[in-house]
Design brief:
heterodimer; A: 349 residues; alpha+beta; Aminopeptidase; Alpha-Beta Plaits; 2 domains; nine-stranded mixed sheet; elongated; B: 58 residues; mainly beta
Chain lengths: 349, 58
């Protein structure tokens, strides 16, 4: 029974292509599932976040998944125990576990809210909108592919845009003029070598876009690049910004900091982490803890509750790739763990 | 609360009574990560936990 329901729900979510801005395509399907699974309430907020609620009591938990995927539609198929398609891993598998797990829980003595958030893969609009809402859960679990481990940390992220201008000239005489592209490359090399970390605890920098030049024999007069810097907890973002500005001034390029997202890290002793560990053990799994090199809605939602972590089925190495696939059995295990957690919370409340 | 010895620094670690073998704890005094286990005599004790791993993704 649960196998059939989870397979259908997961396929329904993955079959509808929902890059950021198109999440509303799933509204009707999720409303249907909300009624079918016995949720008490279904509603959509002003930015398109969808919420399913059931239960009630002194305590509340928000299971915050996301509806959107990175762009790039993939063929949806099911082979044996695996569902293939865009978002199967990141993060419709987790969302399926949350919707199903929320519905499976019996002995309900807490309010369970499943949040299907928008724009996680772009500007985080869905999570940011919660900061201004009345939703103030005691506990939050963010739905991300952690391979059923508990994620207790995400790094911070800085996106910057670099613009370079120069006199340019004929490509036969580069020694009498300057080049916008040359300045841009110098800046990139300095920033990337300054922040050349290779693990979670270190700062990393990478160039994601580079544009310059409009003719094969012209030395470029203009160039621009996009860069992304990631940094761990306990590193001051202002220090990074200061360093980048100094390099820009030295090279002679202009820099705009488009967004700065702060890192997040919680203690292993946090109550929600222990509830999740107990639920994993009750379901025959050994608790594993991970720290994620990227960012997620957890970076934003920690402002609402410090009792927060991320969890979900799926191999994160497949996220954002054309090989996205997820085992239905893992999605079911995720749902059972969430259901156990809600029951544990109900016993405590 | 159970009071158990930290195998890293020898200090005292308070463990909730409902903790299960396999649960992980952070000893706030020394920062070590510990796993609750049961010894051959059925008594609870703490051992050093596996290192927290790094995972890609967002």
């Amino acid at each position: 029974m649960i196998e059939e329901i989870s397979r259908k729900l997961l396929l329904d979510l993955v079959s509808v292509y929902t890059p950021p801005g198109y999440e509303h395509r799933l509204e009707y399907k999720i409303r249907e599932w909300s009624e079918k699974l016995g949720y008490d309430k279904f509603y959509v907020d002003d930015v398109g976040n969808i919420f399913l609620k059931r239960g009630g009591g002194r305590k509340s938990i928000l299971l915050a998944g996301h509806l959107d995927t990175v762009p790039g539609e993939l063929e949806v198929k099911i082979i044996d125990d695996e569902v293939y398609g865009r978002g199967a891993v990141d993060a419709k598998g987790s969302l399926t576990s949350f919707i199903l797990g929320g519905a499976l829980a019996e002995k309900l003595n807490v309010e369970v809210v499943v949040g299907c958030l928008v724009h996680e893969e772009s500007d985080g609009l869905g999570a940011r909108n919660l900061l201004h809402s009345k939703i103030r859960p005691d506990y939050i679990i963010v739905g991300e592919p952690t391979n059923l481990a508990i994620a207790v940390a995400y790094r911070g992220s800085i996106y910057l845009q670099v613009r370079s201008q120069a006199v340019g000239g004929h490509s036969s005489t580069p020694y009498i003029t300057d080049s916008a592209l040359r300045k841009l490359i110098k800046f990139i090399e300095l920033v990337e070598s300054r922040f050349n970390g290779s693990r979670f605890e270190e700062i990393t920098a990478v160039t994601t876009m580079l544009k310059s030049g409009d003719w094969f024999s012209k030395i470029p007069e203009y160039g621009e690049a996009s860069m992304n810097i990631r940094f761990p907890p306990n590193i001051n973002a202002e220090e990074i910004v200061k360093t980048v500005r100094e390099i820009a001034e030295h090279v002679g390029v202009d820099v705009d900091f488009e967004s700065i997202e702060m890192p997040v890290q919680i203690s292993l002793n946090t109550e929600i982490v222990h509830l999740l560990m107990k639920s994993l053990i009750k379901n025959g799994l050994k608790p594993r803890i991970v720290r994620k090199t990227g960012t997620s809605d957890m970076n934003t939602l920690i402002s609402i509750s410090k009792n927060i972590c991320a969890f979900g089925p799926g191999d994160s190495r497949l996220a954002h790739t054309r090989y996205e696939k997820i085992r239905i059995s893992d999605v079911i295990t995720g749902a059972k763990v969430i259901s156990s957690l809600i029951e544990l919370l109900s016993e405590k409340s | 609360m159970k009071k158990l010895e930290c195998p890293i620094c020898g200090g005292e670690v308070e463990i909730p009574d409902d903790a299960l073998p396999g649960e992980l704890f952070e000893h706030e005094e020394c920062g070590s990560q510990l796993e609750l286990e049961v010894d051959d005599n059925g008594k609870y004790r703490l051992k050093e936990a596996e290192e927290i791993s790094e995972d890609w993704g967002e």
